[in-house]
Design brief:
The chain has helices at residues 16-32, 38-44, 51-63, 80-90, 98-109, 115-130, 183-197, 202-213, 223-234, 249-253, 261-272, 274-281, 337-351, and strands at residues 67-68, 77-78, 133-137, 146-153, 158-165, 169-176, 244-247, 294-297, 311-320, 323-332. It is of the alpha+beta class. The protein is elongated. The protein has 3 domains: 9-90, Arc Repressor Mutant, subunit A (Orthogonal Bundle); 98-140 and 243-358, GAF domain (Beta-Lactamase, 2-Layer Sandwich), CATH 3.30.450.40; 144-239, Heat-inducible transcription repressor hrca homolog, domain 3 (Enolase-like, domain 1, 2-Layer Sandwich), CATH 3.30.390.60.
């Protein structure tokens, strides 16, 4: 079960009766978006309790902040604290069905070696299967290990450095060369550079590139000098290199929580701020277990403008070789948490890959 990292289960000292009734209220409200009353519970579930006892229990749960009593309705709805108690202490574990897993694997198989396509497809599938907003963020390349450095001649005065990172990511930069490059000389120096740098992380190369390659004698191509000059940029991780994919906006906007124009505008404003989306998804423990979901509900979601406090965000890290990215689902607090956790954890596990997997 996915728990919020800061929540102690003893924070929810509920009796067995209270646990059963809170669980039913949350599940029913998630299904219908309608307040749940004592009459409905006594009629539809074999609780072995009188309507008056159920009514008193609902009142007690409301007084303790787990339920709310909207308008003049006789029914109750879960509060943020009620959802938190449900996720941490009451929710049954859910898993992807065999057909669902097979469907996901079939869709992702063709993109296994293309990280950008994989990120886009995973967000689309999450949004579609959860009927909410699927989000995927590409891995951080700074911890990725260099698989191959290539230098491509574009003209007599321009070359393109191509950095291939294990796990399927590529970084490029075009630079002006001061000398004409012969193919044989270029191939020789690139081979030497790969011998020195392959297998190191980009962060290691950025910090130590100069001492690692400056002793290469006989380089008349100027490539070594270009590489040393370009290393702070070529092996860095500017924010724009993080690919963010969002899919399923129509799904989330179809939920009853977004009937009012102000609610729609707030959601669109949040989604238009790509940097805010990245911070929102990656605010969980950066060293958390791969493919292990974290559920953040309402005010637990921190963003500068306070726009995310209306939503729940379920995220999990995935790992491609040594690089970590994040996938998740954003939706209203009224969501099927067990289903969403299963989807996010299942997808994160499928996206994750290590060199040992090929051995």
């Amino acid at each position: 079960m996915a728990r919020h990292p800061q929540t102690d289960p003893s924070f929810f000292p509920l009796s067995e009766r209270e646990r059963n009734i809170l669980r039913l209220v949350v599940q029913r409200f998630v299904d219908t978006a309608d307040p749940v009353g004592s009459r409905f519970l006594s009629t539809n579930y074999p609780l072995g309790l009188s309507p008056a006892t159920i009514r008193n229990t609902l009142s007690d749960l409301e007084a303790r902040g787990f339920l709310d009593h909207p308008y003049t309705s006789a029914g109750r709805v879960p509060t943020e604290r009620g959802y938190r108690a449900y996720v941490d202490a009451l929710m049954d574990e859910s898993r992807l069905t065999i057909p669902e897993r097979a469907r996901l694997e079939a869709h992702l198989r063709d993109a296994a070696d293309q990280t950008d396509v994989l990120i886009r497809e995973s967000s689309r599938l999450l949004g579609q299967l959860a009927n909410l907003l699927g989000v995927a963020i590409s891995p951080r390349i700074s911890t990725g290990r260099l698989e191959r450095l290539e230098v491509v001649t574009l003209s007599s005065t321009r070359v393109m450095f191509v950095v291939s990172i294990r796990g399927g990511l590529i970084r490029t930069i075009i630079m002006h060369a001061e000398t004409e490059l012969s193919r044989s000389a270029l191939e020789r120096i690139v081979t030497l550079l790969n011998e020195r740098l392959t297998g190191l992380t980009l962060e290691e190369i950025r910090k130590t590139c100069r001492p690692r390659v400056q002793d290469l004698d006989g380089d008349r191509t100027g490539i070594v000098r270009l590489l040393m000059d370009a290393s702070p940029v070529l092996f860095s991780e500017p924010p724009e290199t993080r690919q963010v994919e969002l899919a399923g906006t129509p799904n989330i906007l179809a939920q009853p929580e977004f009937r009012e124009p102000d609610e729609v505008r707030d959601l669109i404003a949040l989604l238009d701020d790509e940097a805010a989306v990245v911070r929102l998804l990656e605010s969980a423990d950066p060293k958390g277990e791969v493919a292990r979901a974290t559920v953040r509900i309402g005010s637990e979601n921190a963003d500068e403008a306070g726009r995310a406090k209306r939503y729940s965000v379920v995220t999990a890290p995935y790992q491609r070789a040594t690089m970590r990215g994040t996938i998740g689902i954003i939706g209203p607090m009224r969501m099927d948490y067990a289903r969403v956790v299963a989807l996010v954890e299942g997808m994160a596990a499928m996206l994750s890959w290590s060199p040992e997997d090929e051995d």
